[in-house]
Amino acid sequence: MLEIRNVTKVFNPGTVNEKVALNDFSLTLEDGDFVTVIGGNGAGKSTMMNAIAGVWLVDEGQIIIDGEDVTKLPEHKRAKYLGRVFQDPMTGTAATMNIEENLALAKRRGARRTLKSGITKKEREEYRELLKILDLGLEERMTSKVGLLSGGQRQALTLLMATLQKPKILLLDEHTAALDPKTAAKVLDTTELIVNREKLTTMMITHNMKDAIAHGNRLIMLMDGRIILDIKGEEKKQLTVEQLLHKFEEVSGEEFTSDKAILG
Questions:
Q1: Within a domain: 245
Q2: How many whole angstroms separate alpha carbon 143 and alpha carbon 99?
Q3: Mean of the pLDDT values across residues 156-185?
Q4: What is the 3-state secondary structure (H, E, C) of the chain?
Q5: Which of 100, 134, 166, 253 could form a disulfide with 142 if both were Cys (CB 3.0 to 4.6 A apart)?
Q6: What is the CATH number of the domain that holds 228?
Q7: 13 Cβ partners below 8 Å, 6+ apart?
Q8: CA distances for 210 relative to 186, 190, 202, 240, 250, angstroms
Q9: In-domain check, residue 151
């Protein structure tokens, strides 16, 4: 479903601030893979995700989504392939519109976006059933302005909107990092439910090693713009934080220094 072939991305080339963010980076995701991504600051996690989304074009290499080379496509032309949820709960929804209007806009992704014809009774029932999945009572508040929702409620709604038109790839960019632990756990459970139900190919960046181990069928760790660990299958199911730290030290030759990632 996703092939990243020998991608390189350099920021500020030829200056004292030159930074090789992705270094001959390659990764293949099979249809239905749920990959969690971890790594320290500057490892290349966000650069990789932004390269997939087309936020910036890569210097070398190819990005292929479901067999189509999108390497040179700008961000707005890749949007039809992707669903994305960001770290900030305020991103991804229209605060001044109500819940059902936000869902209607997401439903019309790829079509002419207008609410001129209104929301039909059939659509309203569809949205009500979808909102029940979240188990947040939002199905009883469909005419409430999204700006009145809590951060966790908005993030759960954003997740629903990002998957309403089944994307080729779902990109989750530390989408629980701004939430309190209890709300973050709820959003992660909802994520797992939707991803499994829709069989979505998913990539989730997280700062939390425990979450990276607990969710998905595959875990990759980045360092200096490359993948240094790729753990899947039974090995991932049996993995502990201590074992993951040991593997990192073996491969990198140094200690993992992010207390936030280790302790959650």
A1: yes
A2: 6
A3: 91
A4: CEEEEEEEEEECCCCCCCEEEEEEEEEEECCCCEEEEEECCCCCHHHHHHHHHCCCCCCEEEEEECCEECCCCCHHHHHHHEEEECCCCCCCCCCCCEHHHHHHHHHCCCCCCCCCCCCCHHHHHHHHHHHHHHCCCHHHCCCCEHHHCCHHHHHHHHHHHHHHCCCCEEEEECCCCCCCHHHHHHHHHHHHHHHHHHCCCEEEECCCHHHHHHCCCEEEEEECCEEEEEEEHHHHHCCCHHHHHHHHHHHHCCCCCCHHHHHC
A5: 100
A6: 3.40.50.300
A7: 59
A8: 15, 17, 18, 8, 20
A9: no
Q: With bands split at pLDDT 50, 70 and 90, how would you rate the model's confidence at 91?
A: confident
- Whether 59 maps to a domain, the answer reads yes
Split into its structural domains, the chain has a count of 1
- Provide mean pLDDT across the span 102-120: 73
**pTM attached to this predicted model:** 0.88
Residue 94 lies inside a defined structural domain of this protein: no
Please state whether beta strands 60-65 and 2-11 pair in parallel, antiparallel, or not at all (unpaired).
antiparallel
